[in-house]
Design goal:
By secondary structure, this protein is an all-alpha fold. Helices cover 75% and strands 0% of the residues. The chain is built from seven helices and no strands. The termini are far apart.
């Protein structure tokens, strides 16, 4: 018996809107002080759902950003293994698709954060250095400052 690939019932524009709405919901939850266990579960599921909808309807850069957000969610929740898994996915997409600038710098930042969380400070430092170097190639000043400010939130010495 062969299985047919069933396509989602949502059209591309609707999927993109759902992806963006979920992405923004995740940001709201990440910034919520004193999140409940239910909110943490919602944050995980919303990040994955957003990433899925970007995968179905977005460009490679959208998929990279979805994976980045999944990595950040797990980092925020103190879960190094899935944070590292998704950070590696971001870098893989950037390298495969020739994505640089802001997104490549954030791929390195995600790897630095995940490695720091897992206790591998040497690797965390290496990725953070690559992120800082990549910032020199970020075209927009605001984007560069955003990456650098995120790098400033890494543990001391990284």
């Amino acid at each position: 018996m062969s299985e047919e690939k069933v396509q989602p019932a949502l059209d591309r524009a609707t999927q993109r809107q759902v992806a963006a709405t979920l992405f923004n919901r995740v940001w709201t939850l990440m910034e919520t002080e004193g999140r409940t266990e239910a909110e943490e579960a919602e944050m995980i599921h919303a990040a994955h759902a957003s990433c899925y909808h970007w995968m179905m309807s977005g460009e490679p850069v959208n998929r990279a950003r979805g994976e980045w957000q999944c990595s950040r969610v797990y980092a925020v929740l103190g879960r190094p293994e899935p944070a590292l898994f998704h950070a590696r996915k971001v870098l893989e997409i950037c390298q495969r698709e020739g994505i640089a600038d802001f997104d490549l710098a954030f791929a390195y930042e995600a790897l630095a954060r995940a490695c720091a969380l897992s206790g591998d400070t040497g690797e965390a430092r290496r990725w953070a250095d690559l992120a800082r170097a990549a910032c020199e190639q970020v075209a927009e000043n605001d984007d560069r400052e955003l990456v650098l400010s995120d790098l400033d939130t890494l543990p001391a010495g990284i």
